[in-house]
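Input:
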Amino acid sequence: MANTVLITGASQGTGKATALLFARHGYDVILAARQPERLEQVAAAVRAEGRQALAVPTDTSDVQRVEMLIQTALDRFGRVDVLVNNAGFYLSGLMQYTPLDDWHRVMDTNFWGYVHTIQGLLPQFLARGSGSIVNVISFGGATPVPEMIAFCASKYAVTGLTDTLRLELAPKGIQVCAVHPGVINSNFLERAIFRGQDAAQVEERRKQLQALVQAPWVSRPEDIADAIWSAVRSGKSEVIVGQPLTATKALQVAV
Ligand SMILES: NC(=O)c1ccc[n+]([C@@H]2O[C@H](COP(=O)([O-])OP(=O)(O)OC[C@H]3O[C@@H](n4cnc5c(N)ncnc54)[C@H](OP(=O)(O)O)[C@@H]3O)[C@@H](O)[C@H]2O)c1
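Output:
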């Protein structure tokens, strides 16, 4: 029986690249994200690699949808060997311009979404005494960046979750790995939220980010996928991908 990987945020960017890479390495893949058509396209690409794919449209911020995702995955494959928590979005804004609703939204997906999948899969990982949990975090989960306060808080929360979970699960034979990308030239700006003093400031920040993702030092989704694969294969605890320091400096310029 093939190994299986469950990937959240699998419809594009890092999640899609990770799905294809694991498929090439012989894994069957469970794909989760909200938009079904995009998810099905990735599922078709996984099948074209000769592996099985199960696309389950899921909003990871909704615990009941995540429970259904996990039940569907276990019904189909019997087990999940690797969980890649990756679904997240970017939120830009100083504290005074970031409304509470935004704080809840970013925590619901970037933090609680990760807790939901871990809680759901942990019983079968513990029963088997094996498995890997990879949390895709950010340089913003290890370094404070002004004007990214809610995003950083959500990612720091995942860093705390990941580092503590690793200590709890290492004695049980379960790997827990933090992957910290710098900037990735995915289409993340599609769903990014920008807040500021006025429309002009918001537009300026958006343009700054649009320019930044074109920079030559920025990572590709495939680079993050490679890092995730090598982390799982070698049992790593933490991986830093790309140039987080350059990313931090570049984003601080405008503040
Ligand atoms: N891009 C960067 O520069 C960068 C830098 C550091 C860290 N990261 C982190 O790396 C991860 C991947 O980033 P990326 O750039 O590859 O992202 P991306 O291209 O924007 O893709 C995000 C994926 O997450 C899904 N998603 C978003 N909210 C979701 C929700 N509530 N439930 C389920 N799926 C959801 C999206 O699909 P749907 O919209 O269809 O749900 C999509 O498949 C994220 O955690 C991000 O925060 C990114």
